[in-house]
Amino acid sequence: MLTILGFVMIATFLVLIMMKKMSPMAALVLIPALFCILVGQGAHLGDYVLKGIGDLAPTAAMLMFAIIYFGVMIDVGLFDPIVRGILKFCKADPVRVVVGTALLAAIVSLDGDGSTTFMITVSALYPLYKRLKMSLVVMTGVAATANGVMNTLPWGGPTARAATALKLDAGDIFVPMIPALAVGLVAVFALAYVLGRRERKRLGVLTLGDTRVVTEDADEEETELVLVGAGAGGKGGVPAGTQRGTGTGGAGTGSDADPDAATDSDAATDSDDGLQTLDPQRATLRPKLYWFNAALTLALLTLLILQVMPIPVLFLIGAALALTVNFPQMKDQKARVAAHAENVLNVSGMVFAAAVFTGVLTGTGMVEHMARWLVSGIPDALGPHMGIVTGVLSIPLTYFMSNDGFYFGIVPILAEAGAAHGVAPIEIARASLVGQALHMSSPLVPAVYVLVGMAKVEFGDHTKFTVKWAALTSLVVLCAGLLFGII
Fold this sequence. Notes:
two-stranded antiparallel ribbon; mainly alpha; 66% helix
């Protein structure tokens, strides 16, 4: 019964948010509360929720101060050179913009933190997508999938969990997987190219109102206009991109079934403060402190990778230092915090709402029963192929479960079943990384709410668009692993 109710609860949640019948925050709270009562454990709902909040509170704290830290770094101009470089590469070509999205997300993902990746990627490219009237779900889908592949880095989390759960060395798991993961990353760039071609076909030939597009004449200069979506951004004043061709506009949240369609919310936001252009002469710039901010960020990311201190503590200290050094005056510090308060509130609220969902799913025993039912359904004939089975199962299981639940609850069971048929635990560990491309779009991953929140995309739209592409990318990684004899 718990198995059936667990699947029904997850399906109900996904259907309601994809059909936009409920907001993700309301669905994350009300649906698990209802199902907790249905399984006869309503009296324990408070305990489950508090346990879930306790588990996710460090993540909420990390996201809160990470948003403030990177928001301040965007305000003071730390990423302006990177943004200018990306914009020079992208110009007004949708193909280059989408490929640039994958490239930027993959590069920033080297720090091992999805929230950081999404904040920087969206901040850099959101205004460009808006000006070119490109579909924002293309941006969120490509960024999430690229980050999912890169999330397998030893310091990113899944590899370390697999190593801990099976008592293996993280290097022994990750290094042999590099060729397969590289193929997965190539698949992401191929996906970006295809989606970019679709956007180019939909929109026609584009130009930017304030930026001359470089033509075949190599001597023609391009105006460097820094576009960054951040709390400090000035409003309006930037004309929308002009276009020629047969395509019609509509940035929109879109959907895969009809990516050309512009929703009502798109029309409402075409001229809103979502399109924020950071003036190269803005008052928050701190050019004299550029190298200090660069060194501080590098040190922060290094300490994060080395896990010298808990991540929330590192971002808390980093945010305090960034505010104090760049904005010594109290009123300026308050202004910077207020500028990013909306993002902080939205993301932290979603994390605590997700705590209700995970708390009930785990506390009632639904997730354990679901996992054991899936594992018990594996035929004995597939025993010698448990590596492949693990890779296939990792795709849905890491989407419906947290990484902790999967790697510490399911992977040991799969490894035990594989060992009975002569499959080494190291193969199970490597195969368990396959599903990470899809995992980063799971409703149980707090970072995805940073992505959709800053991009102003409905979570349901992001899910409908991204799931199939991310699942396909995971299958590419699995096939590459088999081809190279890694799995």
